[in-house]
């Protein structure tokens, strides 16, 4: 079967032919219907050899949808031919966090050698993918798999970050969304869908700010030396009650620190390598800084339900396997408008 793999440190993704995997006891094989590209893929492919711990070769793709193709021994309650979305942050399944469906915060996964598909385990950017347990499958129902696949990360990750700050998204509050890429443009829609907050979108790209307007941002601000002053102006000098940074680079983190209101929330979602100092005389009184990770299984169900109502959608650029390397290059260079998806 065809697959997109990272095979050699520093060489980027490659399209290769590998054997079709067989499901072991308790596992499920999906015939992949769509797989999403993510900046997280480039984060790990940019790591130096002494920092890379994900194994080689690695089949990429931590956003995946598919139809059940084959069941391992002992699997019950799953029907061959049914469509599913893959819940990616796999945990041990038995700890306090996992029992709540919060496998994204499982404290034992790393020590047990459990890794998400595409981020350690073989991912969905192939014709077939193995899912380790039925609990990591969420029914897709009548959703278009190509349109919905990115919701497993680009929808779930912002939803988790935003839901944790929902009590700050009251009428009259202001929410700043920085980085209007795959996650950011979905984040704007989620805020609009679950709250009455005013949304200010920030990006370095005029084109991406146009996308922000299309998906519901009330105001757009170009990321520049004047951005903090403009946001302060839009907030009557008080700053924003919530700031969601989907870039995570030092300039956006510095901007978040400059515009967050007293007792506000800053959620750093992007993995751009920036760092924020917090504490007395460093951040406004009461301001909280968090780095949320992915989301829970129940939250993925909620994200898919939002998509069914039409409240949330992903702007998708479709590519075939043969164009996967080009798609990754365009992602790396910031040329993707929304999310890139490989369609087998």
Structure description:
The chain is of the alpha/beta class and 344 residues long. It has two domains: 2-153 and 295-342, Medium-chain alcohol dehydrogenases, catalytic domain (Quinone Oxidoreductase, Chain A, domain 1, Alpha-Beta Complex); 156-290, 3-Layer(aba) Sandwich (Rossmann fold), CATH 3.40.50. The chain has ten helices and 16 strands. Strands 3, 5, 6, 7, 8, 15 and 16 form a seven-stranded mixed sheet that branches. A six-stranded parallel sheet has the order 11-10-9-12-13-14, with helices on both faces. The chain has a three-stranded antiparallel sheet with strand order 2-1-4, covered by helices on one side. α8 (250-259) links the parallel β12 and β13. α7 runs parallel beside α8.
For the structure shown, list the relevant keywords.
single chain; 344 residues; alpha/beta; Quinone Oxidoreductase, Chain A, domain 1; Rossmann fold; 7-stranded mixed beta sheet; 6-stranded parallel beta sheet; 10 helices; 16 strands; 24% strand
Topology:
Layout: E1 2-6, E2 13-17, E3 28-36, H1 39-45, E4 58-59, E5 63-71, E6 83-86, H2 96-99, E7 128-131, E8 137-139, H3 145-148, H4 156-163, E9 174-178, H5 184-194, E10 198-203, H6 206-214, E11 219-222, H7 227-234, E12 240-245, H8 250-259, E13 260-268, E14 288-290, H9 297-309, E15 316-319, H10 324-332, E16 339-342
Parallel strand pairs: 9-10, 9-12, 10-11, 12-13, 13-14, 15-16
Antiparallel strand pairs: 1-2, 1-4, 3-5, 3-7, 3-16, 5-6, 6-8
Helix pairs in contact: 7-8
Structure summarized in a few sentences:
The protein is of the alpha/beta class. It has 10 helices and 16 strands.
């Amino acid at each position: 079967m065809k697959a997109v793999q990272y095979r050699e440190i520093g060489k980027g993704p490659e399209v290769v032919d590998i054997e079709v995997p067989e499901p072991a006891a308790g596992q499920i094989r999906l015939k992949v219907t769509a797989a999403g590209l993510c900046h997280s893929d480039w984060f790990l492919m940019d790591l130096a050899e002494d920092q890379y711990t994900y194994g080689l070769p690695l089949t990429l793709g931590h956003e995946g949808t598919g139809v059940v193709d084959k069941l391992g021994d002992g699997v019950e309650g799953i029907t061959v031919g049914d469509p599913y979305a893959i819940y990616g942050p796999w945990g041990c399944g038995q700890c306090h966090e996992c029992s709540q469906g919060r496998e994204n915060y499982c404290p034992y996964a790393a020590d047990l050698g459990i890794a998400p598909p595409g981020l350690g385990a073989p991912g969905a950017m192939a014709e077939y993918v193995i899912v380790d347990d039925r609990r990591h499958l969420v029914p897709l129902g009548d959703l278009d798999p190509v349109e919905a696949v990115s919701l497993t990360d680009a929808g779930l990750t912002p939803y988790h970050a935003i839901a944790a700050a929902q009590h700050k998204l009251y009428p009259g509050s202001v929410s700043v969304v920085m980085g209007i890429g795959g996650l950011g443009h979905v984040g704007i829609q989620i805020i609009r869908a679950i709250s009455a907050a005013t949304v200010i979108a920030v990006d370095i790209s005029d084109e991406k700010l146009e996308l922000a307007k299309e998906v519901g941002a009330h105001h757009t601000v170009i990321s520049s030396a004047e951005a903090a002053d403009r946001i302060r102006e839009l907030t009557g000098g008080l700053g924003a009650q919530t700031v969601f940074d989907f870039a995570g680079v030092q300039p956006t983190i510095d901007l978040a620190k400059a515009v967050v209101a007293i007792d506000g929330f800053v959620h750093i979602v992007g993995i751009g390598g920036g760092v924020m100092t917090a504490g007395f005389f460093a951040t406004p009184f009461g301001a909280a800084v968090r780095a949320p990770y992915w989301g829970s299984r129940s939250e993925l169900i909620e994200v898919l339900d939002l998509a069914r109502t039409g409240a949330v959608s992903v702007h998708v650029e479709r590519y075939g396997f043969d164009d996967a390397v080009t798609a990754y290059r365009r992602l790396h260079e910031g040329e993707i408008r929304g999310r890139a998806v490989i369609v087998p």
